[in-house]
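Lecture notes, unit on protein representations.

Consider one protein chain, 286 amino acids long.
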Amino acid sequence: MLAIKRDLLYYKRQYFITALDLAHLANAAEQMQAERRKVFDELYDWMRKHEDFAPYYPEDLIAALAANEKLFWDNTIEGRFNEDYIATEKAYGQKFAQTGIPLEAYIAVLLAFHEFLYQAYQRQGLASVERMMAFKKLSQASIEIITSLYSDTNLKQLEEQNEALRELSTPVAEIWNGILLLPLVGFIDSKRAKDMMESMLSNVSEKQAKVFILDISGVAIIDTAVANHLIKMTKASRLMGCNCIISGISGSIAQTIVELGIQIDEIQTTGSMRDALALAMKQTQS
């Protein structure tokens, strides 16, 4: 997938924003200053009364916008479309995203601001075709800046959550000096098996473990793929000087393994974790 670098040049190309467009806006900036108070008062009133999104616009949020309204205003009406403009849009978008405000609610604020600003241009007799086209281009660019920021923020949060889940799904614990335990629960697919392998080898190396216990009593399904994953894990640990014991081998699991014809002659197995721990203690003391 092609990674898009959304910088100033990208937005200018994407929305055909030219120096002439920015000049059209800047030329009307001084006259438009008289409209600032009315536009923001209309915006705040709209936020407080919005039928769907008002709960996402508390008074402290409105106060934060009011404290920075001059910056928003000047950036827009003066056509300050530069790196600072993009950075400002992203900074406030990040604050909105972190407070849990949905993207739709943020976009609604932007659209309302742009609508009230458009009406202000009309009141001042400044709504020429060229100027309104330039204004539309900046509005569209602003919306994409916020949309892509929300998307990146959500993706980062999702990756962090997935990483936390992976850590929870591979909870390696040192239960005794030189003895590690990894209790497996649920379904094991290739991705989870890879994560388990990495976690196991990392812990074996870090803690210089002599025995690693894999408890599979909570594994939902034992098939050829799962069994092969377990075999690979035991062989990998052996290469690092660590003996691997698989515990929790029930009668049904043993029967499944036999029926599948999987060779596990080189693997140490026990019926319970207690037996595995006793065996591990014996091996570390010998």
